[in-house]
Amino acid sequence: MADNLKNEEGLRYICSVIGNLSGVPVRIYKNAVQIFFHSVVWLPVDPICLCEDEILNIRSHTGYYTTQFFYYYGIVNYEDYSIIAGPTRLTAAPVQDLRELAFLAGVPSEETDTFVSGMRSVMSMPLESLMQMLLAVNYFLNEEMLELKDITIYEKEQQMYEHQLGKEQTEQRYNEDLMEPVPQEIHNTYTTEQSLMDLIKKGDTDALDSWLKHAPAVRPGSMSPDQLRQVKNTFIVTATLASRSAIRGGMDVEDAFSLSDAYIRKCELLQTPDRIANLQYHMVQDFAAQVSRLQNQGHHSALAASVANYVLHHLSEPVSTEKLAEELHFSRTWLSRKFHEEAGIPLTDFILTKKTEEAQRLLRYTDKPLKDISVYLGFSSQSHFSRVFKKYTGMTPTKYRINCKTTE
Description:
Strand order of the largest sheet: 2-1-5-4-3-6
Order of helices and strands: HEEHEEEHHHEHHHHHHHHHHHHH
Strand content: 5-15%
CATH architecture of the largest domain: 2-Layer Sandwich
Helix content: 55-70%
CATH class of the largest domain: Alpha Beta
CATH topology of the largest domain: Beta-Lactamase
Largest sheet: 6 strands, mixed
Radius of gyration: 23 Å
Structural class: alpha+beta
Number of strands: 6
């Protein structure tokens, strides 16, 4: 009976059952061609299209892949078949992230809201839970009794972080003294810790990069007799402090905690101190970069932070001063005047500057047509988008994209 379930019909049955049980989409591929898809929620476009090749390149019996939005997919390979479950993540993704995901996946603009609603209906679960479910499938199909720690971690950190953070280059430089104990008094980390957290709160990425390269060696208090557990615990403490510092720097509370949780989950799956150190470097830089985006030319206030957070969470919508004032419960006139006083930039310019920065990222890291980008960013027309882009960058979107390609 068990062998009968290992044929194609049996695989479809198994995938339907685990899809219904988990609430996560499940697919079957045969020789890298999809032959089955099951989902309890409707998605106009399957987001796996953005990373299908990378996932199918995982050739171990079980593995996983994490996307730029901290969604993950799990895979089980059996003979000519591959079973892929996902995407899911620990917590629900922000709507703005889902709208960007829809854009990158080529979801038609009129179906974006349906896609966002569907993705928010996909069950959230820890990566460990997803993989435990697939380990059971792997045991049934490949008769292989694996544990979570046996799963091959599929990622080349530097390439993946480069994509996640949207950076042109990712530097592999981290002072290992941050992670390795040296002979000095225990708990002497307070001054060093405060320096690091202050740089994150200010969003000063350049100073942070320089500080990390020359950071003093420290020895945190012992939190575990096991060396690997000690490094992981130190990472968790750093993530907690970094998220709090980013919040004090103006980052949205939910965004900061979600980012912290995502990094901690990734850390728990790593098995060597050097990989954890590398991840920690990127984490503190990520938090600082998030704060930097929120702060405008060094000017910062509670009002400016509220405005920046709203704009960054609604980049894919038409954002007017009237709408912004209504959402923040101020009059349009008062908000425009007060923001200009505190941030040193007119509110309309701030909104369009942030949209232009997002457009630069999309032009550099995607091949989406200008028309699609203009619609996604809420411009009334492609010509309007081009005029705004040239005003704030000094060149047309087409010229900017060409320049990016020639310098890479």
